[in-house]
Specification:
The protein is mostly helical and about 190 residues long. Among the domains are: about 55 residues; about 70 residues, no CATH class. A hairpin with an 8-residue loop joins strand 1 and strand 2. It starts with a helix and ends with a helix.
Length: about 190
């Protein structure tokens, strides 16, 4: 299938009317939805503005389409959700991506981790192998040390504790008992 001028004009017209790539592909025939999307991007048509006042294209009366009513436009009140079904979602504003080279946000304070575990970690990090990402295996501790945006970034590299991704010292920091985490929240 080649994109002739006539087919491109049909594509532009239907895209401007707000038709989906699937509908356009069916109308053109011999082309996939992905091919339509690719051509739309190459033509620079991808930034269309949807409008509620736009009239839909004339449809063939022999074909009947059934569209579900979007939940956002529903006039029915939302159904209550049982407490067991409640799901907590972290809003995107809370999850922030920090560009390389920028300072990291404050890390959990040292008093959240037992002093024994911190002392063990600082001793272990003095004897760590300081390996790069490319040197990691399933038998090496994958605990990152330092800022990944700097040259002084490395992984511990010591032998891992069975069934864990870290060495014994880093397992003590990473995997804390449930009761101590629960107590900190109170």
């Amino acid at each position: 299938m080649s994109w002739t001028d006539e087919r491109v004009e049909v594509l532009k017209k239907m895209w401007g009317e707000g038709q989906s790539a699937s509908v356009i592909a069916k109308e053109l025939g011999g082309v996939t939805r992905n091919a339509v999307i690719g051509k739309v991007h190459r033509l620079g048509l991808s930034n269309r503005v949807t409008s509620t006042t736009a009239k839909p294209a004339a449809k063939d009366k022999s074909k009947v389409e059934v569209k579900a009513k979007p939940a956002a436009l529903s006039t029915e009140p939302p159904k209550p959700v049982a407490a067991a079904e409640t799901v907590r979602i972290t809003p995107p504003a809370v999850r922030k991506i920090i560009p390389a080279g920028q300072p990291l946000p404050p890390q959990p304070s040292a008093n959240e981790i037992s002093p024994e575990a911190l002392a063990k970690v600082s001793e272990i990090e003095k004897t760590a192998k300081r390996i790069s990402l490319m040197e990691l295996t399933e038998k090496t501790c994958k605990w990152p040390v330092g800022d990944p945006a700097t040259d002084d970034f490395w992984f511990c590299g010591l032998g891992v504790k069975t069934g864990k991704p870290y060495c014994e010292a880093h397992v003590g920091v990473a995997f804390q008992p449930m009761s101590s985490r629960r107590d900190r929240r109170r």
